[in-house]
Amino acid sequence: MARGHDVIRWSRLHTDKMTLTIRLMMATTSAAALWGQQAPTGLRCEYLTDPMGIDTPRPRFYWTPQHSERGAAQSAYQIIVSDDTGQTVWDTGRTESPEFTHIVYAGKPLESGKGYHWRVRYWDQADRASPYSEAARFEMGLLAASDWKAKWIRGSNQVRKEFSLEARPVSARAYVAGLGYYELRINGSKVGDRMLDSPYTAYDKRILYSTYDVTGWLHAGANAVGVMLGEGWFQGCATIVQIEVQTEGGRRATIVTDSGWKGTQGAIVSDSIYNGETYDARRETSGWDAPGYNDARWEPVNLKDPPKGALSAQMMPPIRAIANIVPVKMTNPKPGVWVFDLGQNLSGWMRLKVRGPAGTAVKLRHAELLYDDGMINVENLRSARATDVYILKGGGAEETYEPRFTYHGFRYVELTGFPGTPQPDTLMGWVVHSDVQAAGGFSSSKQILNQIQRNILWGISSNLEGIPTDCNQRDERMGWMADAHLYAETAMLNFDMPAFYSNYLRNIRDSQDADGSVPDTVPRARFAVGPADPAWGSAYPLLVLYMYQRYGDRRVVEENFEGMRRWTDFLRSRAKDGIVTFSKYGDWVPIEKTPGALVSTFYFYWSAEMVARAAEILSKPAEAGRYHQLANEIKAAFHQRFFDSETSTYANGSQTSYILPLFLDIAPREVRGRLMSQLRDNIVYARNTHLATGILGTKYLFPLLTRTGNADVAYELATQTGYPSWGFMIERGATTLWELWQEKTGAAMNSHNHPMFGSVGAWFYEALAGINFEDARPGYRRIRIEPQVTGDLNWASGTLNTVEGLVSSSWSRSTDSLRMEITIPVGATAEVHVPKLRANSVVVKESGSEVWKDGRFEAGSPGVVSAREAGEAVVFEIGSGSYVFERTGN
Ligand code: BGC
Known about the structure:
Blueprint: H1 15-32, E1 37-45, E2 52-54, E3 60-67, E4 74-83, E5 88-91, E6 95-96, E7 103-104, E8 115-124, E9 136-140, E10 153-154, E11 158-165, E12 169-179, E13 181-186, E14 189-190, E15 206-213, E16 221-230, E17 238-247, E18 252-256, E19 262-264, E20 268-272, E21 276-280, E22 299-300, E23 310-313, E24 319-325, E25 329-334, E26 337-354, E27 361-367, E28 369-370, E29 376-377, E30 387-391, E31 399-401, E32 408-416, E33 427-434, E34 440-444, H2 447-461, H3 481-494, H4 498-511, H5 534-537, H6 539-551, H7 554-573, H8 596-617, H9 621-642, E35 643-644, E36 649-650, H10 655-663, H11 669-686, H12 695-707, H13 711-719, H14 726-731, H15 760-769, E37 771-773, E38 782-785, E39 795-801, E40 806-814, E41 817-824, E42 829-835, E43 842-846, E44 849-853, E45 856-857, E46 864-870, E47 873-878, E48 881-889
Parallel strand pairs: 2-9, 15-23, 21-30, 38-42
Antiparallel strand pairs: 1-3, 3-7, 4-5, 4-6, 4-8, 8-9, 10-17, 11-16, 11-19, 12-15, 12-17, 13-14, 13-16, 17-18, 19-22, 20-21, 24-33, 25-26, 26-31, 26-32, 26-33, 27-30, 27-32, 28-29, 34-39, 35-36, 37-38, 39-40, 40-41, 41-48, 42-47, 43-44, 43-48, 44-45, 46-47
Bound molecules: beta-D-glucopyranose (BGC).
Residues 470-471, 476, 480, 482-483, 585, 588, 749, 754 line the site of beta-D-glucopyranose (BGC).
């Protein structure tokens, strides 16, 4: 979250490169900062940098104190917020507090549509004041329903309005929502760079609007505004636009959608997320989005049946065209059929350049797979046609087309109907997804891990389309809830996710039923009737928990406490004697099945525990007690029902039936050792070091093995290339993650971009690089650096931009030494586990001076507070700053 890393887009950089870039930035920063503390950087409001159009009445502030000394902390801060006229609306004065995240605004009421600037300074542990930060800005959206003067209009897929301004605009904002999707155009060009806006929400509850600064688009005199509309998830066309203008001389003008607008069907003949777009350029209404166009033949728009949801500000990174990608190969498998290979499975679309006679229809079909003869294989897209058609207007000039209101998940494109022979620049791809910035980087000496990491980055990012989707290509692409919680932690370690998941949690809340149940997909897809499978619906408490653990977000806990409690009570209403037998999917797509009741009861237990934990966080001891007790009852029932004391197994003895009760310590202490060694034997001997788990067991297996001293087995599984494994997919050409362990290419369920098995990516950061949060001080206020130096891994490196600031941990080893480079942000503390690696007499140096020798801590190195021996490691207690530990010994 800190400083200028915001500008790094992961897709432009290889992971190693990013780690390097962050390191370089750190090096530059510390060189320039030898003189102590500096102004805070990384100012954010509601997790966003300079957001425009937020509607939280009491937004929260974040900053990163900068300090070159070790063991630095903030002791007090001062925030000054002023409005655009320069008037102070909040001055905290000097406020004694070590907190610099989630600081809740408490000044004069913030006003609808108004902009504010804020600056912050801090005092360090020695009471020295920093300079003030540079000013950051935030702007309020339309706060009250009554601020909306505009009306929803519907009907045709192209609507327009001309208006005139008496004087030059000095400030203008457009507030816009469009269903399913819109493109706002003013005076001949598209406004902004958002794509596939408005994002998918439960439209009957909440519709997201975007705020644009359109000052530069407008001028004195005649202006025109137009909106193109697509079907999207709404499957209809509706829009609402309100433009607020301040002109020279202090006049105001408001332009709104109302019955005075006119509409027509434009060049987009049809559009569908799954099927693609057909665009007939002969039907273009050239000049329609500029003043002076003759719209006499256009129809008045319809004001009937406005969408039901309340308008709410879009407070998360929008979907954008993030990067372009040039095909790596073009083949001509049959006459007139050209197949382009982009070398990467991605979400987005192609830009086409073509010249030819009017009426020529050029067709683009998108696919993940090829047949042996080089033709595309679209079987696994099922009913999604994924086809864009462009019909030329002709006339001799080059024509350029790219679709607006669809997207495809694909690696290959088939081009047919092309007049002539395509050239290298005939097609170019756009990578399109929610524009979340990079937050972390992982790399290591093991190539296969780096390839998995790379596939995870592509797999997850191409499934962030306003909501976390299950896949990007076939006739689904929905917010399947288990998929969502399974890759959430990996997403949070790689990308800047808090605003995205805050929005998603609102979607879940909006989708909760009166009985407390939530749907399997959020927003609820038409077919997702009834309550979610317990393992799917538990995404609700799980995402709340992850937001709390990784970002320290207490407000999310407050907002969702009631909802998580109701979800848990719903499960309770389905339980009999502590057991939930209701299950639809269980441990999905496994090698070896696990009884659904075991899986469902595990999530029932966990949900109860999470409600208890949330109650503790919110200081509700009575509720915490009640749900702890419920959890204990479920725990006992689980053991009683599924444990067979003769064989010491749970249920059918599948790997997952060991993993789940061990992962949450549902299994009583006295049987855990035996269970763990049986699980290990099952993996190592019975299955020749392979897993047999589905999406659920796979996620929890890795942290379980690690914390029980079996990181070596986890490492072998993660680097395995035999079936089933991630390496198996990669050796067969995967550039993202498959839905199934099996390699399949047929007409059934086998997507080649399904991020749910990306759960293992969290283990890369936490076990291999060793960067861990501590639950008691969430949001990485308290950090545990505990890398697993295992297998043939010679080095690993992780960086993570947390809400506290930058954390990094890299280690490398040679035959007799281990070197660890660590950075801890200002205000945080950490324990660093330096593994002894079976050496007898360990000597540890920090930046050259001895800090551990003859079994004792040697004081003197700044920031290194103490050390102790714990099991197989020497554990150092450190404050903020950058450290180099070197362990030698034999
Ligand atoms: C989706 C999943 C989802 C599952 C439910 C599939 O069709 O793609 O990933 O979780 O259905 O079982």
